[in-house]
C-alpha cells in the first residue's frame, strides 16, 4: 500500500486544480483587477497601483504618498473528460471537474522619505479547487484536489535616480492541501497537509524616456515540506503521518509600458517560470522510510502578453489584452490531477475614477484551453483484494475553458 500513499502524497503537493485556470502549472497570476483587462501585459512596468508590490516592488516609487488596494476574483474553470478506463471499473466521465473559486488580494504602500517607499501585500500565489463525481471511472486516480496558499509580502522601493527605481520584498507563504480518491478495498483515501515557507522578490524599473518604462522583476523559489496524514476510510491500520518536500518555482518578467499618445498606452510582457524544478517527488513517512520516488519531468514555460489602454476621458480608461500561456506539462506527464494544456487569453476591462482619491477597476477574461490528451497508468487497489496492486489506465481527452471576473477598489490617502 506504500506505493498508493506515494501517489496520494504526490497529488497533495501538485494538486492540479489551479492549472486548469490561469498561469502555468498551478500558479495564480490574478493578483489585481487593474491588470486583468490587459491580460496582465506589462505588469512589471505599469506601476498602476499598489499591486505593483507583487509584480515589481520598484513600481511603488510611482505611487502617491499612501495607497490601499483591495481586489477579488471569481474564477470558474470548466474541465470535462471523455474517454475510457482499463480495466473497466464502471462509472461515468466525472462531470465538470472545475469549481467556482473566490481569490482575494490586498496591498498597502506609503512614502517613507522622498525617495523610499514601503509596502505590504497579501495574496494567493498558488491554488484553486477541482472535483470529479465520486463514482467516476477515474476515481482511483483522482476525486477531489484542493490547494490553498496565503502569501504575506512586505516590500521596499528606492528611487535611485530620476530614471531608475529598485525594489525588493520578502514572501512568507503558507500552503494547505487536501486530496481524496478511491483506494478500492481500502475505501476513500484522504491526504491533508500544510507548511510555511519563505522567499523573496526583486525588481528594477527604468524610465527610458518620458513615454517609455521598462521593468524587470524576479520572484524566488519557495521551498515547502507539506506535513500531514494519510487516512483510509475502511482500513485504519494504513493511516499515518507523511511528508513531501517540494520547491515552488521561481519566475522572471520583462515588461514594457509605452505611452503612444495622450489617449493610448501600449503594454507588453514575457514571463518565464522555472517549472523544471519538478524532476522528481520523494515521499517519506515520518519514521524516515522512503515510500517512493515519482518522476515529474515538468518543463520551464513562457507566457507572452500584449495589451492596450484607451483614456476615453479624465474619469474612464478602457483596457484590452491578449496572452498566450505555455503549459509546463508534457503529454507523457499529464494526469487526472494535472490535465494542463496551453491557454490563450482574451481580456478586457475598465477603470473609473470616482474622485482624485479613489477608483474602481473591473476586468473579465476568457481562457481558451487546448484539448488535453491523457493516457495515464497508475497502480490502484481494487476489490476484492487490496493487494497486489492493479494497474489502471485512464485514456481520453479533456475539454476545458476558464472565465475570470475581477473587481478592485483603489484608495489614496
Automatic annotation (TrEMBL):
Q: Domain of life, per the record? A: Bacteria
Indicate where this protein resides in the cell: Cell outer membrane
The record, for Pfam families, names:
Toluene_X
Record SUPFAM superfamilies: Porins
One Gene Ontology cellular component term attached to this UniProt record is: cell outer membrane
User: What InterPro entries does this protein map onto?
Assistant: OMPP1/FadL/TodX (IPR005017)
- Tell me, in one coarse class, where this protein mainly resides: membrane
Leader sequence segment? 1-23
- Molecular-function GO term, any one: long-chain fatty acid transporting porin activity
Keywords assigned by UniProt, alphabetized: Cell outer membrane, Membrane, Signal, Transmembrane, Transmembrane beta strand
Membrane topology classification: Multi-pass membrane protein
Identify its protein family.
Belongs to the OmpP1/FadL family.
Give the protein name, as stated in the record. Aromatic hydrocarbon degradation protein
Amino acid at each position: 500500500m506504500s506505493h498508493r500513499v506515494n501517489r496520494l502524497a504526490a497529488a497533495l503537493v501538485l494538486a492540479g486544480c489551479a492549472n486548469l485556470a490561469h498561469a502555468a502549472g498551478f500558479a495564480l497570476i490574478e493578483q489585481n483587477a487593474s491588470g486583468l483587462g490587459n491580460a496582465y501585459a506589462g505588469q512589471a512596468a505599469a506601476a498602476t497601483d499598489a499591486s505593483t508590490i507583487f509584480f515589481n516592488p520598484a513600481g511603488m516609487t510611482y505611487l502617491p504618498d499612501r495607497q490601499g488596494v483591495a481586489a477579488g476574483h471569481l474564477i470558474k474553470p470548466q474541465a470535462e473528460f471523455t474517454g475510457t478506463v482499463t480495466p473497466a471499473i464502471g462509472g461515468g466521465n466525472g462531470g465538470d471537474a472545475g469549481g467556482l473559486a473566490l481569490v482575494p488580494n490586498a496591498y498597502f504602500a506609503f512614502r517613507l522619505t522622498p525617495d523610499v517607499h514601503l509596502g505590504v501585500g497579501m495574496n494567493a500565489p498558488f491554488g484553486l479547487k477541482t472535483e470529479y463525481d465520486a463514482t467516476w471511472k477515474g476515481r482511483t486516480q483522482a476525486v477531489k484536489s484542493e490547494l490553498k496558499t496565503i502569501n504575506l509580502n512586505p516590500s521596499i522601493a528606492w528611487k535611485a535616480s530620476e530614471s531608475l527605481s529598485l525594489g525588493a520584498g520578502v514572501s512568507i507563504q503558507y500552503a494547505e492541501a487536501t486530496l481524496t480518491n478511491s483506494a478500492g478495498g481500502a475505501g476513500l483515501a484522504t491526504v491533508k497537509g500544510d507548511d510555511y515557507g519563505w522567499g523573496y522578490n526583486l525588481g528594477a524599473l527604468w524610465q527610458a524616456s518620458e513615454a517609455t518604462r521598462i521593468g524587470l522583476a524576479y520572484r524566488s523559489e519557495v521551498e515547502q515540506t507539506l506535513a500531514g496524514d494519510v487516512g483510509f476510510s475502511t482500513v485504519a491500520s494504513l493511516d499515518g503521518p507523511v511528508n513531501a518536500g517540494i520547491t515552488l518555482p521561481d519566475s522572471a518578467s520583462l515588461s514594457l509600458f509605452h505611452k503612444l499618445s495622450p489617449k493610448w498606452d501600449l503594454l507588453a510582457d514575457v514571463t518565464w517560470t522555472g517549472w523544471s524544478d519538478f524532476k522528481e517527488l520523494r515521499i517519506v513517512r515520518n519514521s524516515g522510510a522512503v515510500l517512493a520516488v515519482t518522476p515529474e519531468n515538468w518543463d520551464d514555460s513562457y507566457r507572452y502578453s500584449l495589451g492596450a489602454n484607451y483614456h476615453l476621458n479624465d474619469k474612464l480608461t478602457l483596457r484590452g489584452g491578449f496572452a498566450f500561456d505555455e503549459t509546463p506539462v508534457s503529454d507523457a506527464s499529464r494526469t487526472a490531477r494535472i490535465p494542463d494544456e496551453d491557454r490563450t487569453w482574451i481580456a478586457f476591462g475598465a477603470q473609473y475614477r470616482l474622485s482624485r482619491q479613489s477608483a474602481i477597476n473591473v476586468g473579465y477574461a476568457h481562457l481558451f484551453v487546448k484539448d488535453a490528451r491523457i493516457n495515464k497508468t497508475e497502480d490502484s487497489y481494487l476489490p476484492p483484494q487490496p493487494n497486489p496492486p492493479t494497474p489502471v489506465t485512464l485514456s481520453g481527452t479533456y475539454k476545458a475553458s476558464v472565465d475570470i471576473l475581477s473587481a478592485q477598489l483603489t484608495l489614496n490617502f
